[in-house]
Amino acid sequence: MKLPITTLLITLFTATSFAQQDTLWFDGGWNKTTKDKAHFYRPPAKKEKRNLYRINDYYINGNLQMTGLSKFKDSVHLEGTATWYQPDGKVMQTETYKNNKLNGVSTYYRYDDCDDNNTNETVAGVKYIKEAGADDDCIYNIREITYKDNHHIKEILYDTNKKGARKESYYKKGSIHKKKYYDTNGKQLGSYHLSNNGNEHGIDVSYYNKPMRPKVVTTVKNGYPLYAHAYYPNGKKRSNFDTIQKVKTYYNEKGKVMGKLRYEGELDRLLYFHGKRYTFYPDGKTIEKIETYDNQYLIKDEEYNGGVLIRENFYDDFEIVKTISYTDDGKKIGEFTKKGNELNGTVRNKYNQIITYKNGFPIKATIPYINSRKLFSTLKDSVITYHDTLGNPIATLKVGLRKGRYFPDRLETGEYTPLPIEGTLVTQDLKQRIAGKTTFKNYKKTQKTTFDYIKDKRFKQHILYDENEAPLKYTFYFSNGNKQYELFYNPNTAEKEKGVFYNKNGEQISTFNYLTSTGTFYEFYENSDAIKEISKQRNGQFIAGKRYQRVYDRSLKTYVNVLREDVNANGESTFYSKQGDVLCKAIFKNGKPWFGTVYDYKNNRKIQVKDGKKHGIYIDYTGDEKTIHKQGYYKNGEKHGKFITWGGIRTSYESKNIKQKEENYKHGARDGYTIKYNKEGKEISEVLYKNGKREGYATSYNEKTNKTYRLLYKNDKPFEGVAVNKFNGEKVYKNGTIVKETNYTDVKTHNNTYQTIKTITTYKDKTTKEVIVYNLKDNKLLSYSEKYDQLHGEVIKYHNNKPKYKAVFKDGDLQKGEVWLSGMTRFESEQYFLLSKQNNTVSIKIYNQDLQLISHTAIKPTLYKDYNEQQLLSLKRLDLTPRSSVLLIYDFYEKIK
Fold first, then answer.
1. Alpha-carbon span 397 to 716, nearest angstrom
2. Where does the signal peptide begin and end (predicted)?
3. What is the arithmetic mean of pLDDT over 389-413?
């Protein structure tokens, strides 16, 4: 049985009958196959306790791959605990099911190479133990997830000690809303939650791995980190932050103070002020850089490599004015300075390139391979010499020296861009391999070769240029070094003229004239030996062709190239499955399907054709190309008869379809009943069509009220009755006009929880409507009226089902009273607003996420002589014309501070 994907919602097993009586065989993608092609197998299920059946899946070598109990003998409908294993026998995951849904605790194991330095070693109070019998395969971490009906409720991440260092995540509505963090002794370090606006608050913790222990503990507010405490891998404190003095103190691994950095400003707007700031490499213990500040100015930084000082930069007004470079042994290389906007001296830059400047020009350089000490190139006497990784010279390039292209007078650049004149320019990739070679003659490119590396294969591309550097010919190569194809261009028009194609043995197999579209062209997948398409044409007319698809083979852990279409423009054409088996055949005429069955593998569609038109059975499959998603019938190119759309719970190798929709067509137009079903397959609506238009009575079922409603359609428009939408909302129509609407919505409250509300809208006429919002106990939360989509009349906010705040609007303008608003500012701190207008005084109180009053403004516009009321209110950020969308719905008034 295939391992379900656990980083997303776990794919469920379904109850599709396969009438199992003999051993079932599966290929690497868990498609049923024959024994000789199998990678997995399943013996017949055996009955066990509680009338359940034991399902055992095995790797082809006989090792157990999965075991679990199923409700049915001839299908996979899991109950209780199911366990999956790696090929070496280690437990990969255990999951708990109830009625084929994830319920309860499931555990997932992640393995990694054992770290010999940490194996059986006590670090920060935790003993990290290599698993018995495992030479190099240790538990990296364990995820324990609690599910309820397939939904995440809680997740715990730890390594081997569930009571020690761990991270707990709590879910609501499918998203994490809170996290808790613990140290190696199981003591809670803090918690972390999302606010109503989606910003994070609280304590966030990052951990080291193998074993798991705290690395950095950060205090976060409104989504921004304020300050942090850090630890070394040995558990010793690396830094702490004094929130009173606003001082960060750094310690070495023995606990001694290394330096301090004082900050200025508020905690959410801290600035470096005075002292030293340390940054570390990802290992958490090796210093990468030390910055020195004085009166908010950076005056010096020191860069280290493996604990050895390699560079010192001195600043004046945040600009580098002097750099001293050192070797990895700590020996001084030289000084680099700027005098009169000219660079002079020797610098070792951040890429470990050593460059010597004189009067702004680079005159000498030593360039290593990336992330290596091996020599890549040298610059001397205006000539660059390139070397292979063994140190042997492979090319030279004469260059014209020039100042840096972008910032020639800035020390921090520390690079150079010479002008190629004669010879070969060589480039490298991130893995110390040659990435390209470009040949120059008299300042112009003559040819260029690039190399792309895909795993253990190398693909080469060569370009030949004319005297004006316009491409003449592109040559592509197979991974074995033989030519794949050549493309010839007209240098004056840049138009492709001819293609010559080869097989892997270097033998020419075809040519193609792009000007007349005549011949046979091959298209290959990029950086691959695999053919994507073969097309034979004559004067632009398609003659024959093949299309291939790269299909991932899980057992081989690589892609294989599979023929999917073999088409003859005037003859028999064949279509194949992902496994290479024949799916169907059709006769083509003048390049188009004429008779038979065609399969479109890009859209997973199968359709029968007659006389060049769709005629017969039509099937739309899911991605596995076996499970039917939609099926129907065409007649003379038009939909005719019944079309059914299926849904349901599926795996990649078997599924149970549940009908989602049924439509009836007549000569291309809907005619008859269209019926929709819920995810369990129960009918929820039925609409009658006549000649493509809704006509007559339709029925719909409200799953929330368990009531069935009728709605009369006339000329395709709702006329009289009630319609129910997929969210169980209702619309009431009379004489062709909507008169009432009920909707259910989940709104996020101030404490990051969700509240389901019911909104009832009554339409008085085409311009006026009244809206009342209730909670699920039918207590009123809010009521208001609108005219021409503007607030008009009373807006009442309720508390405990009684009016608490009232306001009166006219044509969208607040006339008097108080109204609560939200979501009308760009500032994170401002969340809720109480807008008021009483006795010619306009005021607004602003509250933050914690319901604390942070601002209160009150003015009397009529007493100002400089501005009219509207101008004044705009200057004071007081908007008396809010839309209904910003009216606050939920009730929190008892918690206002």
1. 77
2. 1-19
3. 77
Question: CA nearest 289: which of 317, 259, 264, 256?
Answer: 259
- Residue 546: exposure state from Cβ atoms within 10 A (0-12, 13-18, ≥19): middle
Dist CA 427 CA 436 (whole Å):
5
Specify if 203 maps to a domain.
Answer: no
The string of pLDDT tens digits covering residues 777-796 is 999 999 999 999 999 999 99
Dihedral sign computed on CA atoms, order 158, 163, 169, 174 = positive
Distance CA 490, CA 463 (A): 13
Nearest to 235 by CA among 257, 251, 222, 259: 251
Tell me the C-alpha distance between 62 and 478, whole Å: 39
- Judged on CB neighbours under 10 Å (0-12, 13-18, 19+), 322 is middle
Q: Is the pTM of this model over 0.90?
A: no
When the pLDDT of each residue in the chain is averaged and rounded to a whole number, the result is 88
Is residue 172 predicted with pLDDT exceeding 60? Answer: yes
CA separation (Å) from 575 to 569, 572, 632? Answer: 14, 10, 20
Report yes or no on 171 lying in a domain.
no
Beta bridge partners of 495: 490
- Looking at the structure of the chain, the number of domains it has is 2
Whether residue 750 lies inside any domain: the answer is no
Domain final position from 670, 689, 723: 670
Give domain status of residue 832, yes or no.
yes
Rounded to a whole number of angstroms, the distance between the first and last alpha carbons of the chain is 57
pLDDT surpassing 90 at residue 839: no
Q: How far apart are CA 23 and CA 97, in angstroms?
A: 25
Whether the CB-CB separation of 478 and 484 falls below 8 Å is answered with yes
369 contacts 386 by C-beta, under 8 angstroms:
no
The residue from 670, 704, 727 where one domain ends is 670
Residue indicated by tokens 């028009």: 493
Q: How many whole angstroms separate alpha carbon 596 and alpha carbon 581?
A: 17
pLDDT in the model for residue 648: 72
Helix (H, G, I), strand (E, B) or coil at 742: strand
Query: Using one digit for the tens of pLDDT, what is the confidence trace for 273-286?
Result: 999 999 999 999 99
Mean pLDDT of 127-141: 54
Q: Is 112 in contact with 134 (CB distance < 8 Å)?
A: no
Closest alpha carbon to 728 in 742, 713, 718: 742
